[in-house]
Specification:
about 575 residues, five-stranded mixed beta sheet, binds adenosine-5'-triphosphate, binds magnesium ion, nine-stranded mixed beta sheet, about 30% helix, single chain, about 25% strand
Length: about 575
Amino acid sequence: MRTSEYLITTLKETPSDAEVISHQLMLRAGLIRKLASGLYTWLPLGLKVLRKVENVVREEMVAAGALEVSMPVVQPAELWQESGRWEQYGPELLRIQDRHERDFCLGPTHEEVVTELVRNEIKSYKQLPLNLFQIQTKVRDEIRPRFGLMRSREFLMKDAYSFHRDHASLEATYQVMHGAYSAIFTRLGLDFRPVIADTGSIGGSASHEFHVLANSGEDDIAFSDSSDYAANVEMAEALAPAGERPAPAATMSDVATPGVKTIDDLAALLDIDPATTVKTLVVAGDEPGTLVALVLRGDHSLNEIKAEKLAGVASPLQMAEEAAVRKALGAGFGSLGPVGLSIPVIVDRSAAHLADFVCGANRDDVHLRGVNWERDCPLARVEDLREVVEGDPSPDGQGTLQIKRGIEVGHIFQLGTKYSEAMHATVLDENGKQVTMTMGCYGIGVSRIVASAIEQNHDDKGIIWPTAMAPYELVIVPLNMQKSEAVAECTEALYRQFREAGVDVMMDDRNERPGVKFADMELIGIPHRIVIGDRALAEGQLEYKGRRDAEPTLIDRDAIFAAVM
Ligand code: ATP
Ligand code: MG
Ligand code: MG
Ligand code: MG
């Protein structure tokens, strides 16, 4: 590839709306451009990286015995009604209607569609096990799209679904997938950990998440310091022995508005009638002293409140009490700061006293957990709130826990019969009897991997790609190619040699100053650079620099090919 014929659109300035380094660098290096919130265009350089990741994922899935299919993004509501998820999924499911006013959704995941396929195609236990995968666009109307491709509303996922006649067969394929995932993330050059995960709203019996370790990760993962035990924090908390849970570190009374101890107190302050209007009350604080109280009417989920807060717009939630809330706060909603970092507590009328509940304000770096922004929140009472902190005993009884941040790049589940039962996906067994199939599902965030690789591999100059996903492995930078015949000739010859050897090589033949070219190529993160200039060439030498090297080294023209390969 010659850069003069390519699209290089690097930016000098850091875009102001990009919070994390991967998002900043993907924009600056010209990998992606934003179309709208959570929607991105992949530019040629970025798409090249995405395709490399996709190919590693595909090769390992095929090697693990999975078969590739491609299912529609648009999915009929009837299937989701059959599984029960049309009602359960909540506002993340982007629903649409066709011209006949029939309901559809844009698939956030494909359990229903694949179960529909398999129940029609597979009749006998002899055709099992079967593992089908696709690499395809998913759509989720995320409450808070952010960090670029890390949490977007349209993204590329590899999703696989396995079908079995019994649990033992599922268990075997699950282990094969666990191994395939480890092979994928290892080949991609990522520092990752598989962790035990809770099975959450998808249901089922066993689950692991694969996390890329990075401080910007949105999840906490807990590891034992003396065994292989690793779990996401929700799971570590669920498994922690009850007696050993430390008491929550901040209580409602620590952060509450003075004088407000009960729901009735708050209702009085807000000038509302608790008996008739308060369905759910959410209390959240971002910083000490910034208590926020939101009052909901009806059945609005927590996700909607959060969207509301973030959008900072007038209320489709009928939070008619906004003015009263402002009064209670003495400050506008607009001054909230990073809302996503706060953790809410939900209090219901069944609870007599607010003080019975723990507020998840971020006080002195303490985050209380047990309430989840992402799902419709269950009520969180003090006794349900548990927090695992560093130094707690590991749930496996070996050593103590360390806590690190992770980015969830993969997730595998043993679904059991959740979908096959609801959707009557059966096969005939040896005795001619109908048996419900057992299922597993296995997801990888292909586009999220690209962002997480940058979180792990960058410096102040830009991206440092692991070779397996570098858009180009090598760049040849000729100096003064337009004027020097020797440079032009050497450049063309080397370029041809590397191409013929199958190396993804770039020739930076733009008519730019060397400094501009070097800066661009470092920003874009090309692992190897060869500079060809008249002076060194006259001595039979070229300048080589690995992306992580501090200084270039001179290498003989004749030895350069072997040195880079
Ligand atoms: P998260 O907890 O980050 O919201 P999830 O648990 O909802 O992710 P899964 O349903 O397990 O996601 O989907 C499989 C994989 O798809 C995830 O492990 C993640 O890598 C990726 N993924 C999920 N949501 C997004 C998104 N909004 N943008 C990019 N990748 C995503
Ligand atoms: Mg999610
Ligand atoms: Mg998750
Ligand atoms: Mg998940």
